[in-house]
Amino acid sequence: MEKVKVEFINTCSCCDGYGDVLRELAARHPQQIDLKIYYMGKDFDYLSKYGVINRGTLIINEKNRFDDLSRRVIEKAVKTALDEVND
User: What pLDDT does 1 receive?
Assistant: First the structure.
């Protein structure tokens, strides 16, 4: 089974809640979601792939980027990616 690659760049403390949502989704679908959370100022390996990011950003399968985040946006984006993989 192919996994959905979910990456989140956490840029500030107010984005921590989005990380919690993503961890919750990954726990619900452990065989389907490969989650990586980067913390700005601590992790730097995302810079070579995505460049400088200055707001919390969700990236799915290294191509779909979401900058305007909410719980609803995150859940919908992950569900859509999971549906695409399962088709």
Answer: 66
CA atoms of 70 and 14, how far apart (whole Å): 12
For 26-68, what is each residue's pLDDT tens digit? 999 999 999 999 999 999 999 999 999 999 999 999 999 999 9
Rounded distance between C-alpha atoms, residue 79 and residue 85, angstroms: 10
Cα Rg, the chain, nearest whole Å: 12
Amino acid at 28: R
| C-beta neighbour count of 9 within 10 angstroms | 23
Determine the Cα–Cα distance for residues 65 and 87; give it in Å rounded to an integer. Answer: 21
Q: Tally Cβ neighbours within 10 Å of residue 63.
A: 7
In the CATH hierarchy, which fold is given to the domain comprising 4-86? Glutaredoxin (3.40.30)
What is the crossing angle of helices 16-28 and 71-86, to 10°? 30
* Domain assignments of the chain as residue spans, ordered by start: 4-86
